[in-house]
Design goal:
six-stranded antiparallel beta sheet, 12 strands
């Protein structure tokens, strides 16, 4: 009984926090690799096109990859090195990552050397250019004082919390729903050593 209540708390907290998030949609030419320190799982059969983030400022690691036809039954793949951009997500707004696609492979190779992308709020005519940056980890003091996602050892009545602006790896989730094992692993990684011990005590007693 305790196990079912505890698992219910984990799922309730996850979906409550996810409902507060806004969405960034990525075109097929750009692969989102990382949000702050949190990796985004990609696979050949399951591509991630949308990332959900709570309002705040985040550093995103992206990669540009495009395919151009080079005559009959011949193609050229053009790729960039992974690069970082900083984005600000506002409450109540969903976004598209936009760019000017090169007309041929030669121009695409030039673009790949210095990708230029913008963030455009859905329904807006204006797009905000994003500058390529180096990854900047949050100061240790800020990380120590920042609230983190509720761990599995907390009761179901705990209010959902989201990471504040400027903290890498904020409340990010993907539209494709993870399975139970992935959910448990996610919350286990967020928990402190004390919370992990408390969790083990609950499920083994």
């Amino acid at each position: 009984m305790r196990k079912s209540v505890l698992l219910g708390s984990v799922f309730a907290l996850f979906y409550s926090a996810s409902s507060l998030a806004e969405t960034i949609h990525f075109p097929e030419e750009f692969v989102p690799l990382q949000v702050g320190e949190r990796l985004i799982e990609q696979s050949f059969f399951s591509r991630v096109d949308d990332v959900e983030l709570a309002p705040g400022t985040y550093q995103l690691k992206l990669k540009y990859t495009d395919l151009y036809e080079q005559g009959y039954d011949d193609h050229q793949v053009v790729e960039s090195e992974p690069f970082w951009v900083e984005v600000t997500v506002e409450s109540g707004k969903n976004y598209d990552l936009v760019f000017n696609r090169a007309s041929n492979a030669v121009a695409a190779e030039v673009f790949a050397e210095s990708p230029q992308v913008s963030l455009k709020a859905k329904g807006s005519e204006l797009a905000m250019p994003l500058s390529i940056i180096g990854y900047r980890a949050a100061p240790a003091q800020a990380m120590a004082s920042a609230p983190v996602a509720a761990s599995s050892s907390q009761p179901a009545t705990t209010a959902p919390v989201t990471l504040p602006a400027k903290v890498p790896g904020g409340q990010a989730s993907l539209k494709n729903t993870p399975n139970a094992a992935a959910m448990l692993e996610f919350w286990w990684q967020q928990a402190s050593p004390e919370e992990r011990r408390a969790f083990l005590d609950k499920v083994t007693n």
